[in-house]
Specification:
Low-confidence stretches: none
Number of helices: 10
Number of strands: 14
Oligomer: single chain
CATH architecture of the largest domain: Alpha-Beta Complex
Bound molecules: threonylcarbamoyladenylate, magnesium ion
Radius of gyration: 19 Å
Distance between the termini: 37 Å
């Protein structure tokens, strides 16, 4: 992808003034502010209408930049070497003298960190003297954005600048892993659990049940297109959109598919944009046909299950 340097320069200018901008990542777009600035981080919470007790993910260029803020360990480095930059978020212990704003973590002693792979955002991160606090660039509990237009749909002129990076290639949020002690998965996401298991060579604890909510992104109302969703549907009712994993031989106006051939990675990439399309086409509800619960299908089912509880 060609990087527009004038746009990066503009993005930098806003960030140095403690303004929030939207940035592209390979998972979803983020609503970013200087993670060292209380003022910028407060703006992120306010714009997103995010409860103060739901901490932000902080985006770094590389681990060398992170070293001053967090305690790193062997398992972190194993996963970093294999998957970073990429769609994985680590929960780590903060160092006492970390410069990360207390607003980011709501005074918690842990920090969620990620190294995004998108070339535009990497180029930006390389050029600035601070990491970026960036939750997904949607109003709390709405669908995450996978292109600049999605961001504009939610925020209009309220965001000073959207740094365009085209369509997000993964299209679904990062996998979150608490790596401080026994590795614990807090959110399914862009990296499959089997790939993580292979690197760590041990069982993973999965702790993403809505009841516990150690990461509020696990809460049920997240990822919702704002209309009812029912799962494992055999057919659609009147006024209902019918969502399939693969293309059907019979094409009907209310039929939507996630991947022509039923490829689960492609399906994940198309999930949010398809839900958005269905909503914008004014369907009253969505019936979803069964989606295989393996690989990225697990992440897709996780999001749809939470959205169905709306
Ligand atoms: O792919 C992604 O992760 C995207 C892109 C923009 O990087 N970001 C994203 O951020 O999905 P957000 O804020 O929508 O989701 C972050 C999740 C939230 O559920 C939050 O509760 C959890 O991470 N989180 C943040 N800090 C945490 C911490 N210290 N401990 C546990 N969970 C944390
Ligand atoms: Mg989010």
């Amino acid at each position: 992808m060609k990087i527009n340097l004038a746009n990066i320069k503009k993005a930098k200018k806003f960030l140095y003034k403690n303004e929030c901008i939207a940035i592209p990542t390979e998972t979803v777009y983020g609503l970013a502010g200087n993670a060292f600035s209380d003022k910028a981080c407060k703006k992120v919470f306010k714009l997103k209408k995010r409860p103060k007790n739901n901490p932000l993910i902080v985006h770094y260029y590389n681990y060398q930049n992170l070293k001053k803020d967090c305690k790193l360990n062997e398992n972190f480095f194993k996963l970093y070497k294999k998957f970073c930059p990429g769609p994985i978020t680590f929960i780590l212990n903060l160092k006492k003298n970390s410069k990360v704003s207390k607003v980011v973590t709501n005074k918690k002693t842990t920090l969620a960190v990620r190294f995004p792979e998108h070339p535009v955002t990497r180029s930006l991160l390389k050029q600035i003297a601070f990491p970026l606090a960036a939750p997904s660039a949607n109003i709390s509990s709405r669908l995450s954005p996978v292109c600049s237009n999605d961001v504009k749909e939610d925020f209009g002129k309220k965001i000073k600048f959207v740094l365009d990076g085209g369509r997000s290639s993964i299209g679904i949020e990062s996998t979150i892993i608490d790596i401080r002690n026994k590795p614990k998965i807090l959110r399914l996401g862009g990296i499959e659990l089997s790939a993580i298991k292979k690197i760590l060579r041990r069982k993973l604890i999965i702790d993403n049940s809505p009841a516990k909510i150690s990461a509020p992104g696990q809460s049920r109302i997240h990822y919702s297109p704002g209309i009812p969703i029912r799962l494992k549907a055999k057919k659609a009712k009147n006024d209902e959109a019918f969502l399939f994993i693969n293309k059907k031989k019979v094409a009907k106006a209310n039929y939507f598919f996630l991947s022509k051939k039923g490829d689960l990675n492609e399906a994940a990439k198309n999930l949010y944009s398809t839900l958005r399309k269905i909503k914008n086409n004014k369907y009253k509800s969505i019936a979803v046909a069964k989606i295989p619960n393996k690989g990225m299908g697990k992440t897709i089912n996780d999001r749809l299950t939470r959205a169905s509880k709306f």
